[in-house]
Automatic annotation (TrEMBL):
This is 2-amino-4-hydroxy-6-hydroxymethyldihydropteridine pyrophosphokinase. The keyword Transferase applies. Residues 97-108 form the 7,8-dihydro-6-hydroxymethylpterin-pyrophosphokinase domain. Its EC number is 2.7.6.3. Catalyzes the transfer of pyrophosphate from adenosine triphosphate (ATP) to 6-hydroxymethyl-7,8-dihydropterin, an enzymatic step in folate biosynthesis pathway. GO terms for biological process: folic acid biosynthetic process; tetrahydrofolate biosynthetic process.
Amino acid sequence: MSADAASFVTVYIGLGANLGNPSEQVRLGMTALAALAPTRGLRCSALYRSAPVGPVRDQPDFVNAVCALQTSLTAEALMRALIEIERRHGRVRDAGKGGPRSLDLDLLLYGQEVIRSPQLTVPHPRLHERAFVLAPLTELDPELTIPGRGRAADLLAACVGQRVEKLES
């Protein structure tokens, strides 16, 4: 089936970096997403700065964003493409969870599907509790609903105390 005949699904991808020039790394990630085939309709949030979350807190702040696009790739094929983009931008995946990253791409949402497999969990398992993801998500779609969790805007309101600073429009 050609990409024109395939059905497209709206997906949301989280981007983050805190090594080198993080803002530039995130922008390069956006450019790579725009070139990803078969996709269309790329829309990206502003950039946001946030404190590290997780086990490794002694590291530079992250720059984050979220992009929405439509794709006819399966969720698994899209995740493989995201991992390849990360690799091309210097990401080392065995560096440990929560550590510094040159570029991190997370498949946050794949339409309204719930996917639980050894390779992939969608919605992203912690997106509902992370302001650095929810703020750019609600910027792109203030009425967005996270399957099994509720409205992203309501979830963001519950993330009190998490420092997230919008850097640009």
